[in-house]
Amino acid sequence: MVLTSTDHFHDGPLNDVEVLRIRNDFPILDQEVNGQPLVYLDSGATSQKPISVMEAEQEFYEQRNSAVHRGAHTLAVAATDVFEDARATVAAFIGAQENELLWCANATAGLNLLAYSFGNASIGEVSPEARQFAVGPGDEVLVTEMEHHANLVPWQELCRRTGATLKFIPVVDDGSLDMEAAAALFTRRTKVFAFTHVSNVTGVINPVLELTGMAHDVGALVVLDACQSAPHLLLDVKALDVDFAVFSGHKMLAPTGIGAVYGRAELLDAMPPFQTGGSMITTVTMEQASYLPSPQRFEAGTQAISQAVAFAAAVNYLSETGMARIHEWENFLGQRMVVGLEAIEGIRVLGPSAGTARAGLAAFAVDGVHAHDVGQFLDAAGIAVRVGHHCAQPLHRRLGLSASTRASTYLYNTTAEVDAFLAAVAGVRPYFGITGA
């Protein structure tokens, strides 16, 4: 009998023995690439999926496939039940109530939903409750210099449409936020503060409570990009005191095409909708429409039903494994990577040096070798990493680079894989005939 990870969950720290059992749940990892065993170090871009997640989606189509919230027949009721159960499961995973979680296609879609909803509150006639989201000339939207483009461009567009001003908190040389500058940037003109919990480039874990406190002190709404934290850290949106948060399923063992937006219930019910159509209305005449409360208010049309069901299976898998254990293991692997990379001549690691808390990822530059060439060299050794600007061009520009190579770990990576990666990186410069510092 093949042992699966669910046969061995316990409260102690993760270790290589248990991780090898966990890997039995991820069949894609048991293959060779270019004649070498696959070492998948690109979970920061997208994670692999366990058998239980794939089976959950298949089981929905085999047993319950039907439109939700629309039919009175037995199959429609069953589909609606599992769809809403999935919402409750994912909401509980982040410490929210089920009516505080909206489905969306991914975090990018979720951030656009918020930015465009705020924009809709800024034009025309809206309810008094919706006016709290309005921005215009004289108002400011604050982001950071480390943002993924998904948490930058939508706010640029909001400011362009409304006349508000976009400002940003700069980073210091190690890629962490300049907190002294941050304190000066929060003013009564700040209406929205949108920032990432964890940098997808440097692995920096931002001080959410401190930043949220600064924002709320001036009356700003807080939007947290949790794409790189929800899969890897214990995430409690209430304890973090954020007003909104977004995250994507595909980065946390779930399928593509499904993400979520958290929002405080009273805020979601006051926000104007972003997309309109069926399933989000109460009454429609030829002249106007009235809208349902959250979450249906923001879920026009047919939703990603099977993906939502599989998303719930994914967070159950993570919860059963233990998020604290996952974070501890990834921190161990991440520190091992940084220590190893820093010891290789000609390598510059982006972000904090070894010994500083970070996510289980490391982006780096190789002196004299372009990141794309580094990626191809590693791929030839069966090692999958991410290369490019990682949708964070301003941060790379601030760090004096156009691109970097990023290795990112997850609960299914082993110490041996990190060591194989480090050994391969050590061979990059010699392969390209580069010697010396």
What does this protein structure show overall?
The protein has two domains: 5-41 and 322-429, Alpha-Beta Complex (Aspartate Aminotransferase, domain 1), CATH 3.90.1150.10; 55-319, Type I PLP-dependent aspartate aminotransferase-like (Major domain) (Aspartate Aminotransferase, domain 2, 3-Layer(aba) Sandwich). Helix content is 37%, strand content 16%. The chain is built from 15 helices and 17 strands. The chain starts with 15 loop residues before the first helix and ends in a 6-residue tail after the last helix. Residues 1-9 have low confidence and may be disordered.
Summarize the structure.
By secondary structure, this protein is α/β, with parallel strands linked by helices. Helices cover 37% and strands 16% of the residues.
Question: Strands, helices and their partners?
Answer:
Elements (H helix, E strand, L loop, with lengths): L15 H8 L8 E2 L2 E2 L1 E2 L10 H13 L10 H20 L7 E4 L2 H14 L19 E5 L8 H10 L2 E5 L9 H7 L4 E7 L11 H10 L3 E5 L11 H4 L3 E5 L10 E5 L1 H6 L10 E4 L4 E3 L13 H17 L1 H20 L4 E3 L11 E6 L4 H10 L2 E2 L1 E3 L4 H6 L5 E5 L6 H12 L1 H4 L6
What structural class is derived from the secondary structure elements? alpha/beta
Tell me the strand order in the biggest sheet. 4-10-9-8-7-5-6
Spatial separation of the terminal alpha carbons: 52 Å
CATH architecture of the largest domain: 3-Layer(aba) Sandwich
CATH class of the largest domain: Alpha Beta
> How many strands, which pairing sense, and closed or not: the largest β-sheet?
7 strands, mixed
> In CATH, what is the homologous superfamily of the largest domain?
Type I PLP-dependent aspartate aminotransferase-like (Major domain)
Supply the number of helical segments: 15
The overall number of domains is 2
| Poorly predicted parts | 1-9
CATH topology of the largest domain: Aspartate Aminotransferase, domain 2
What general outline do the C-alpha atoms trace? globular
Arithmetic mean of pLDDT: 95
Helix content percent band? 25-40%
Number of E-state strands: 17
Indicate the proportion of strand residues: 15-25%
Compute the CA-based radius of gyration: 23 Å
